[in-house]
Amino acid sequence: MGWFGKSRREPPPRSSLKELSAKGILVFHHTSDVIQAENLLKQAGMAIRVMGPPPDLRTGCDLVIEFPLILELEVQRILSDSRIQPIQTVPVQDTLLSPVSLFQTRDYGDYLMVRAANMKLTIHKSSRLIVNISGGGCPDVPWLADQLIGKTLDDAPAPQRLGKTLCGYALHLAWEEMHRQCPG
Amino acid sequence: MSWLIVGTVPRKDFPLTCGQASLKDRDLVVNGCVSPVVRGTPALIAAACIACKTLKLEPPDVLLCGDIGDGDGSSHIYRYLAETGLTQKPYTGLLFHYLQPDVDWHNRILMAIDALPLRPLLMADAGYMYVAKMSGYAASYDLFTPDVGELAFLADEKAPHPFYTRGFLLHEDKAAPDLIQQAVSNGNAAGHLLVKGKNDYVVAGGVIVDIVSSPCVETMEPIGGTGDSLAGVAAALIASGLHIPEACSQAALINRTMGLLASPTPAFAICDLLASLPTAFKYAC
């Protein structure tokens, strides 16, 4: 029995091996780079997710992109073709924070408000005119509000195209949800 | 009002400027630089200016720079604060608002504040409240003004931004007392909190000392800038000599009364409501 005991080595649990080797994260200087990279990689059909960075990589208002590590070369090619350069590409070794994925809707009669995380978007229901944007704390929020308010959902630019921060990203989620609830 | 309000203006071409704020019609004017009062820091400053006029105080000094989210304007502000060390004038209060969260800059500025001979009262809202919590130095602040969602972010010890707060949308107003306790016990709350929502909670030293729930104007929630106006009025009342809890209670009542008088639809802008602020002071105080 001693012989067997000495020679047996427990393999790492399969699930943790898979987790350590399967995913990588792309770290960027600016959230606006993350948003651009997300668009490009999704257009290329990649199974990626925008996530919160692990604690040791957090610097402030930041996001990372989780991607299948096996596709790293392809990811780098797509990004370098568009001159977007991640500052780091590292394997996932910690739990990434998931962005909020639920929405709250409030009906004000003629108006409808959708909240995603800390951002609220309100439209006039019959005209689909964006009448207000509130919440958030990053500096692009008031600027995005200036760009969107007074335009219809169809005419307004997607917040993802203009936004540069997590609050801008949350506003985009609210904008997408509003499109889903009030299709033209 | 011997206070400095620090924040950004949603324009790329607004230069770094520091001086006394004034209002001209619906515009904010500082050292000849003009910004419309639409939402964000200009709305907060406009509310503070109107409150100061009503309270017969000088308007606040402001430190502003244009920033559309790329962080450039915020960087100019951070650098200015770090280089001057806030020694040019002995402010009794500092209010930090829409700034790009950056932990390194935050900590350098907090060190500069700690080095002042007389430490000013510290208030943070919006992006600067996020970074104050993220830095681990939330308890160094005297007042935070979160809404209920942002309170959930303060209560969640792992969330670096409201975007990631776990169970965010489950945190309704009725959960606010529990969230307040979590934020306080995790060291992620300022000495005082003014939690904005259906009920406004005034918290001192981890204890809820007042709840303001009327008048209730539900159409204020979608209007951008109504939280900013509340923070601006609270700052002016503190500058007038009120203790922080009393100032928060009065500010909540005044801001709600402003909404009641304006009778807004969700399509109103904050400047439509601010016209009612002087009258709201008379009714509420």
Characterization of this structure:
With 184 residues, chain A is α+β, with helices and mostly antiparallel strands. Chain A has helices at 2-7, 14-22, 31-43, 72-81, 140-148, 159-162, 166-181, and strands spanning 23-27, 49-51, 64-68, 88-91, 103-107, 111-116, 119-124, 129-135. In chain A, a hairpin with a 3-residue loop joins β5 (103-107) and β6. With 285 residues, chain B is an alpha/beta fold. Chain B has one domain (3-144, 219-284): UDP-N-acetylmuramoyl-L-alanine:D-glutamate ligase (3-Layer(aba) Sandwich), CATH 3.40.1190. Helix content of chain B is 40%, strand content 19%. Chain B has 10 helices and 11 strands. Chain B has helices at residues 41-54, 72-84, 103-114, 126-135, 148-155, 176-185, 226-239, 244-262, 270-274, 277-284; strands at residues 3-9, 17-24, 27-30, 33-36, 61-66, 93-96, 121-124, 143-144, 192-195, 200-204, 207-212. Chains A and B meet through β5, β6, β7, β8 and α5 of A and α4 and α5 of B.
List keywords for this structure.
heterodimer, A: 184 residues, alpha+beta, Alpha-Beta Plaits, Enolase-like, domain 1, four-stranded antiparallel sheet, disordered N terminus, B: 285 residues, alpha/beta, UDP-N-acetylmuramoyl-L-alanine:D-glutamate ligase, eleven-stranded mixed sheet, globular
Summarize the helices and strands and which ones pair or pack.
The complex is a heterodimer of chains A (184) and B (285).
Chain A: H1 2-7, H2 14-22, E1 23-27, H3 31-43, E2 49-51, E3 64-68, H4 72-81, E4 88-91, E5 103-107, E6 111-116, E7 119-124, E8 129-135, H5 140-148, H6 159-162, H7 166-181
Antiparallel strand pairs in A: 1-3, 1-4, 2-3, 5-6, 6-7, 7-8
Chain B: E1 3-9, E2 17-24, E3 27-30, E4 33-36, H1 41-54, E5 61-66, H2 72-84, E6 93-96, H3 103-114, E7 121-124, H4 126-135, E8 143-144, H5 148-155, H6 176-185, E9 192-195, E10 200-204, E11 207-212, H7 226-239, H8 244-262, H9 270-274, H10 277-284
Parallel strand pairs in B: 1-5, 1-6, 6-7, 7-8, 8-9
Antiparallel strand pairs in B: 2-3, 2-5, 3-4, 9-10, 10-11
Helix pairs in contact in B: 1-7, 2-3, 3-4, 5-6, 7-8, 8-10
